[in-house]
Amino acid sequence: MMTLIGSIGGSLVRRIVRINRSLCKFIGKRASRYGSSGSYHDELISRIETGLLSGARSVLEVGGIDRPLLTKSGDFRYTGLDLESVERCAQVYDTFSVGSIVRARRHGDLDDTSRACPR
């Protein structure tokens, strides 16, 4: 009896998964005409570059210590914020703070007084 119920349940789950995949594919095809399905990474880099070309002098990267988007440059100040610190943060960022963005924003830690990475 338990095997019969298990196989009916398994078949129902497979059917639901199949229907879900079909719906997602259908919606994905229809939604693509309303927005780009391109690379979010490329879009983000493009927006950062546009900001820097428009006169921005600093970039704040949140949560990127394991996979930084940019490299340090004399053209802008590269600030990092993450929940943890690693030894190489001094090589990756000009300044670095440990903590959450909510706490840092609330306490003003994201201004020019951010502490430099330990060397």
Could you explain how this protein is built, in words?
The chain is of the alpha/beta class and 119 residues long. It has helices spanning 2-31, 40-53, 89-92, 101-107, and strands at 58-62, 77-82, 95-98. The protein has a domain at 57-107. The chain is built from 4 helices and 3 strands. It has a 3-stranded parallel β-sheet. The longest helix has 30 residues, at 2-31. Mean pLDDT is 78; it is low at 112-116.
Brief overview, please?
With 119 residues, the protein is of the alpha/beta class. It has helices at residues 2-31, 40-53, 89-92, 101-107; strands at 58-62, 77-82, 95-98.
What's the topology here?
Blueprint: H1 2-31, H2 40-53, E1 58-62, E2 77-82, H3 89-92, E3 95-98, H4 101-107
Parallel strand pairs: 1-2, 2-3
> Largest sheet, described in full?
3 strands, parallel
> Which percent range describes the beta-strand content?
5-15%
Structural class, by secondary structure, is alpha/beta
Low-pLDDT ranges: 112-116
The Cα radius of gyration reads 23 Å
What proportion of the residues is helical, as a percent range? 40-55%
Which descriptor suits the 3D outline? elongated
Average pLDDT number: 78
Give the number of DSSP strands.
3
Tell me the strand order in the biggest sheet.
1-2-3
| Number of helices, counting only DSSP H or I runs of 4 residues or more | 4
Distance between the termini: 67 Å
Order of helices and strands: HHEEHEH
